[in-house]
Amino acid sequence: MKKIYLLFILLPFCALAQDAQTIERILSQELPSDKGEKMITLASNFLGRPYIASTLEGNKEELKCRLDGFDCYTLVETTTALYLCKQKGYDSYEAFLDQMQLLRYRDGIIDGYTSRIHYFFEWAKRAEEKGYLQDVGSTIGVKNNKKINFMSTHRQYYSAFKTNNEVWEDIKYMEEDLAEFPFYYIPKDQYKAKKSQLKHGDIIAFTSNLGGLDVNHEGMVYIKNGEVHFLHASSEEKKVIISTETLETYMNRIPKHNGLMVLRMN
Questions:
Q1: Phi and psi, residue 36, nearest 5°
Q2: Where are the chain's structural domains?
Q3: Is the pLDDT of residue 174 over 90?
Q4: Taking the complete model, does pTM exceed 0.90, yes or no?
Q5: The domain 2-265 belongs to what CATH superfamily?
Q6: Which of 7, 66, 108, 216 is least enclosed by beta carbons within 10 angstroms?
Q7: Extended beta strands in 49-162, E state
Q8: pLDDT in tens, 84-117
């Protein structure tokens, strides 16, 4: 029994040490000079890793950075943090964690569930404010006047505020603040005319036709043999992959996708 108890104590520390080694190995890699190629090279370190949903949830709000598996959001976020570390010349696991916290939490401060940025749309706009990236949709897309309030209107799906009215009210205030940010996207029916303006390594998010929801899925543009594919954590394939179907085919196949957000690293 003592051996089993000791194992449960040691496992998290072993995983942490392994993650630190992985991150520092990646940060020591020589990368291409092209910014998009850098993003793809960094993300490619995680090809084949399992798709794991809801890795950020828990009873206590704290920074979680798992490398044993990703969902679409955490893959993009992790890759972006690695990219920013490389751009700034940082090579330590601690610097990576700091960058993750700056990306994931409003003003980089962890202060409960609502201090975390939950909507990818807000994540993108906060990152743009910090100068990390640019919203390409502002030049090649159109403005989306959709009201973002899926979380507050579907509280039954969120254990953090399913019965907690205080957190629920905070979520509603947060959603109201999103109205200050312009929401640009390329509508699905305009994609064919605009796809030549996408670049290898661009961050993409498939916008949603569901009421109150900003996006359904995220990934990165991967141009292969002149065709636009994408690298993503796939819930269908249950792992991180480069899509075999083109981005256009995928988007048209999924009825709830109505367009595309496009972000480009600075």
A1: -65, -40
A2: 2-265
A3: yes
A4: yes
A5: Putative xylanase like domain (1.10.3670.10)
A6: 7
A7: 133-135, 142-143
A8: 999 999 999 999 999 999 999 999 999 999 999 9
